[in-house]
Amino acid sequence: MHTFKPELPSKLPLALNIGFTGHRPDGLQEADANQLKQQITAVFTSLSSVTADLLETHSAQTRYNQTKPVLRLLSSLAEGADRIAAECALAADFKLQCPLPFERQSYTLTFKDQTTNETFFNLLERAERIFELDGNIETDKMAYRHVGRLVVHHADIMLAVWDGKIDETSVGTAGVIAETQQQGIPIIWINSKTPHVIVCWDSGSAKDDWRPLDVNWLNTILKQLLFPADSEPVTKRWHNCLTKLLPKQQKNTYSDFYWLGEPNRFGIGLAYRAFFSFLGKRSIHFWGNPYKKDTDYQWQAIIQATDHLTNKVKLINTLNEQIRDNFIRADSLATYFADNFRGTFVLCFFLSACSVAFATLGTPINHLPAAFEDFSLLELAALFFVLMLVYRSRLRQTHQHWLDYRLLAERLRQQAIMLPMGSTSRWTLPDYEGQDDSSHAWINRFMHSVSRAEGLPDACQNSEYRQGYCLYLAALLTDQAQYHESNAKRNKNIVQFFEIGNTLLLILVILACSLHIYIERFLAEAEFIPLVATILAIVLPAFGAAFAGISSQGEFERIQHRSEGMKTQLANLAEKLKTKAPIISSHELNQYVNQASDILSSELSDWRVLFRKKTLRVEA
Predict the structure, then answer these.
(1) Pair 13, 159 in one domain
(2) Is 215 in the same domain as 349?
(3) pLDDT at 560
(4) What total number of domains does the chain contain?
(5) Confidence of residue 408 (pLDDT cuts 50, 70, 90)
(6) pTM of the model
């Protein structure tokens, strides 16, 4: 027996990103510098203490590795409160990541007090990562808005030194606070005026409903962020009874991704691999461990694409640390469970057709040999085996595991695509499906943990970097286009096989019926031949129905057309990127990135909606 052994990834570190926004010196005229530092330090101390305590809990041990928590401050190091907070964070053993609105040298030209440049560069040297956007100091308002939104996008909690004045149109602190509240991100607000009172807000409160900061609130918020509850699957009474008789059900949750065992590669998955290889690829190749091999090949395509990037080494390190092992495991598990689910329904349809043949052969018919009567037992055995296969698949949730791990693998692939631009994987279900499909919630939380552990890229978004990323994106889209082209061909081959098979069966049924009529009328003395013709006329349509059932359940034709459409869209977008690469602007590049994300996300949503309804059912 073959054994499938997906790589077991190391658990993600428990990471927490604290965004920061605060006033420049002209907004701190009523501040007491020493007291403000004490208050900021007190917040960091509380965050460190509560996070350390949470790491000792059972929830943390099942989800995260037990290394020291990764606590980060995201700050653009503007003059004033940003630098005070950065100094306090470093002193509290936080890591510092700096998204800058401009390249660092250009950024210094916007400082009113040029004597503070040394402090700015000293902080940059101590920063874990620096992500320099390509803002134009002549249109600096938009650059500040972009960097503010970037901080909000990556923040788990926003820490603000603010005077309390609300202005949604502002590109400064007031605008960032408004954006943060719109996104529902918790806020810790230190008043920029003495005595620098600390209050807090979360999405469960009205926008103007602030409460004093306390450890209980902080503990509750961090638990919600770091250990959101996994929903239990809804089960029926008969389902619970069956779980006592059949193999134990496995729930798909965040922590299950790590402890889910190394499942045996038993005959059903192996048989489907042979079936798909022969009909789709027109070849037989299903031995060894194609799961690991195929996934490694996909990962190498991502690594090879990084050759275009100026920060190749840094990016590869980040990809390997946070995404590689999780992607390989998710993709391997998705393929494994897909093979077992699909192999189950192929075998069930085939056995159902066989049961019709056994029933026919076991029916008392004139001139039927007595030995054929034992086929009734085979009919019963075939039907029992179908029931066993269906409930085994449902209790082990091969269908749900396949959908969830495929979704996770594709979102991790998107994360690798978006990471160099400081973006993250985006995916939503259509409104009509969202309330009915809640099982993907753990994947959203897992992806949030991945993004939280990654932090910001370490790069400078100059023209050379933009050109390199443009080619990087084009290479990955081309790779996906080639996959969809091959996938369309494989599924087209399968569709053609079933079409030809059903046509041949129909011809054989017509011939059998015609033969039966001819013999009954003109060769009445014949005994065995009419019996064979009758049996064929009954059994062959059953196999035709099985072919139709397999084709419908597998949606091979729809997959073929979808892959053909995806191939065209991705190939066209990749060609545009290659053409635009030498002269592409930041605005254009972001549009192409969003377009690529939309194409990949919409296809993923449509795929999940389609196949979520394709569960195995017991029907007569």
Answers:
(1) yes
(2) no
(3) 94
(4) 2
(5) very high
(6) 0.88
pLDDT reading at 203 higher than 70 = yes
Amino acid, single-letter form, for residue 322: Q
For 118-172, how does the pLDDT look when each residue is reduced to its tens digit (9 = 90+)? 999 999 999 999 999 988 888 778 889 999 999 999 999 999 999 998 888 888 8
13 within some domain: yes
Nearest residue to 322 via CA among 387, 217, 391, 416: 416
304 and 404, same domain (yes or no): yes
The answer on 353 and 500 residing in a single domain is yes
With CA atoms as reference, report the closest residue to 471 among 312, 618, 235, 598. 312
Q: Which amino acid belongs to residue 412?
A: L
Q: What is the mean pLDDT of residues 565-583?
A: 92
Residue ending a domain, among 172, 202, 226, is 226
Q: Within this chain, do residues 206 and 346 fall inside the same structural domain, yes or no?
A: no
**Separation of alpha carbons 154 and 361, rounded Å:** 67
User: Cα dist. 83→92, 432, 554 in Å?
Assistant: 14, 47, 58
Question: Does residue 219 sit in the same domain as residue 324?
Answer: no
Closest residue by Cα to residue 94 from 460, 455, 457: 455
Residue range 81-122, pLDDT digits in tens: 999 999 999 999 999 999 999 999 999 999 988 888 999 999
For residue 199, the enclosing domain spans 2-226
Q: Identify which of 483, 485, 481, 487 has the alpha carbon closest to the alpha carbon of residue 575.
A: 481
Assess if residue 263 is contained within a domain: no
The DSSP secondary structure of 427-479, one letter per residue, reads: ----HHHHTT--TTHHHHHHHHHHHHHH-S--EE-SHHHHHHHHHHHHHHHHH
* Pair (67, 165) in one structural domain: yes
Q: Which residue type, as a one-letter code, is found at position 316?
A: I
Tokens encoding 527: 């005994």
Angstrom distances, CA of residue 168 to CA of 173, 174, 176, 180:
10, 7, 8, 11
For residues 302 and 214, membership in a common domain is answered with: no
